[in-house]
Structures
1.
Amino acid sequence: MLYKKFIEFYEKIQGTSKRLDKTYILSKLLKTTEDEDIERVTLLVQGRVFPACDQREIGVAAKMIIKAISNATGYSSNSIENYWRKLGDLGKVAEELTEKKKQSKLFSKELSVRKVFDNLQKLAGVEGKSSVDIKIRIISELLSNASPKEALYIVRTVLSELRVGIGEGTLRDAIVWAFFPKVVGIFVKCPHCKNWVPNSNKCPECGSDLNTNFNDAVKEADGRILRVKEVEEIKNKEIKDYDFIICPDEKTAREVYNYIVNCVQDAYNILTDFALVSVEAKKGILSLKKVTLKPGRPVKVMLAIKVKTLKEGFSTVGKPAQLEYKYDGFRVHIHKWKNHVKVFTRRLEDVTHQFPDIVKAAENINADSFIVDGEAVGYDKRTGKSLPFQRISQRIKRKYDIDRMVNDLPVEVNLFDILFYNGESTLNKPLRERREILERIVKEKKGVIVLSTKLVTSSEKDARNFFNESISHSNEGIMFKNLNAPYKPGARVGYMVKYKQIMETLDLVIVGAEWGEGKRAKWLSSFYVACRDDNENILRIGKVASGLKEKREEGLSYDEVTEMLKPLIIKQQGRYVEVEPKIIVEVAYEEIQKSPEYESGFALRFPRIIRLRDDKPLDEISELNHIRELYENQRNRKTKDN
Ligand code: AMP
């Protein structure tokens, strides 16, 4: 496929905000892609050249791109930086300068998807002394042959700035639409353009109104047709060679369609790479269904829903429920096969190298192969007390001095689930059986590897006591789990829920901000916020970049806050602006941490702006003493059940 053609599709996808239209165009792109390009196209359309679970990174800084644009267009680095400042986006700079260059020199070869993709992948493998020069050369070569539009997309891909716009759900549905028969009723024939399109108000192909009912759609189906009375009939059947599936009614059609969608989603949650899912889906639905866990390849973790009350916890997972301490560490999946052990985080990062202690701890699990799920919690060696996540988070990124880290910041693994055991997936076994397996095969060793503390109960009173007990051990709260549920990788389906202490919000004043990048370039998009001490000093406590909305109608927006701050700007330095402390916002957060980074001595974990506090004067913003108290209380939290 020519890269130019790929971009045409990509632009169409970007050109619409409607998910249905995006999915439709994407499915057409996948359908027209030759087999040999299917992996590349599936990744590129997500703005990637590696799947999320692949540790390799393109590793190219803006400076290198500037040099490459300079090589390809003949403009000096200085003038490119000037353009960058003006346009706020290096992709646009590359586009504009390639356009200008075009008048003097015609670009030679047409770029193919394969060429662009393979070159970008190559970037990640370049190491050593002259790696910067080699990388610049690889990008320059692409840019020299690129049209202005192609230059724009190449630069954005290299800088990982294309990773927006296409969500998992869109890609999943597009795969369904591209590779499986049309379930009649869910798809209808447009009376105007005669294309089969998803049934909605408007035809995504020609824009005309769609008003086709189920029976009319059935009459129009023509080709290889599979007639299905109920969804059970297709559960073990290959369906890919049919053009249409016709069901007796709309309800069954919906069930059949959902079944196909779920097959694709389940495969994705296990493979964690849509490129592989596309390849399997092209082979057929039976191939997709055969996809299974493979120790060594990361798999998505099951996610938890948040509940506000203990009662809601029980009503979500059912009674009796398994309650567990909610540890404040980081999620790990430990994989073992043959003589290998690997450790992955919930973001599918391979952290085996950083955690030789977890690899060793896995020796206490008696099985030939497994994938287990748990939380690694740091603790203080002298007191044995657990440490907040932020104290051990440095171990996740650490590349050197590992032995010292293991010694200074030890972790204890608290296991709570098993996904794969001795060559077989355990995903479909109920939790109570999975837990039994864990209890059988794990030899617990305090400070090394233990099972999560659990309580099976139906009583709210017991749950409250269990919560208090958990908090008194410096944990974050408790989990509720459905004893009969399977393990659903990647899903937030209510098989487990979390119940946490609710943190008091802070009222803080904005003292600085940064201009955004890409599509947020016209707004101030992250904000330095401050509290005060009892001498009226304003002290920074963090940087908030979430909570605001893109559109005014959705709530307090970047645009509004930018307008409020603009007249207050005192100083500007690059992207950073300092503003008069006038705008007060209410900020929620997960935790207060000690931090040398800000004058207050504290920082906020996961802060988000909730609303404007224009009712508050500056001298009523949160006080440092109070924040210190909140920080102390975090360590010995009390129940605040509401
Ligand atoms: P949150 O990070 O607030 O969405 O809460 C869910 C996270 O809690 C999980 O991803 C785990 O990292 C963590 N966690 C701590 N203890 C447990 C437990 N006993 N069972 C499941 N998850 C737990």
Note: The longest helix spans residues 250-271.
2.
Amino acid sequence: MNAMERVTIDDLLKGAAKIAVTGHVRPDGDCTGACLGLRSYLLGLNPAYMVDVYLEPAPAVFSFLQGYDEIRLYTEGEYDLCFVLDVSDAERLGRNAALLEHAGRIVCVDHHVTNAGFAPESFINPQAAATCELLFDMMKEEQIGRETAECLYLGIVHDTGVFKHSNTTRHTMETAGALMEKGIDPSRLIQDTFYAKTYLQNQLLGRALVESIVFCEGRCIVSMISRKTMEFYKAAYEDLEGIVDQLRVTTGVECAIFLTETEFRVFKVSLRSNRRVDVSRVASFFGGGGHIRAAGCTMTGTFYDVVNNLSEQIVLQLESE
Ligand code: AMP
Ligand code: MN
Ligand code: MN
């Protein structure tokens, strides 16, 4: 089924009373906003619903969102209905993939181009800038309160890099506009959750920029933060948010790679491109996924192995055009 057919959240509820909502590992703004926004919307429809949100710890800057303190980690429990949001494949659910086995009905709402429809029922629209934008289309506007609007607006802000990435459409802006009318404080939300950086985050950004390497005649840039550095700074993954985007804006760069060493010779790979390279294809080649201009995967080997393997795929695309 296609999200364009405008199936509403209300249509999907059909008698469900025990509802679970979950999203991908290392939740970002869109994932957290989508899960908490849907929770808040459902409870607004009927406070008698039982709505449990399962996510890995979400960044503390999102803690003002309604329901943040109610987020649970994992479950083996049974639910009538489970919403799987901003997730492109079952592996991205981490331990919460168990929910897929214990729910009566599973509905995935997502915007990743690499989502092949792993869930029994999927509403996938890669044209949407954010899962939060898709969710808005599935909600009744008059039923959206301020708390729900804050969540959805936050998701759109984060997945569009504050309305600047190429995924931002007229519809994205119109959705954001409608959400602004719900009484949220957009400037504050953008400043506090997107632009504000801790001293530690700025130090890590600085290090990543100083240590970055350009290659392919300046068309590619790569940087890495090692486990040793993470331990030295007592940093969390969320402290690295935005680094790859700063690499991407380097003049002349088409493709930016940022590696985070998660275990010995295991790297979380973040990829961004500006105009030509479809990084979702590069990430998919290595078992990951994402969007055309922003994607990721996990790779093993030394730093040089990983960069060589990635650059081979990137160069293939650069040379084919
Ligand atoms: P990130 O670089 O972590 O901000 O991720 C950019 C995009 O790629 C997001 O839409 C993620 O959902 C997606 N992504 C990142 N890592 C993976 C992965 N290991 N598998 C599939 N998709 C990923
Ligand atoms: Mn996400
Ligand atoms: Mn998203």
Note: The CA atoms of residues 24 and 92 lie 5 Å apart.
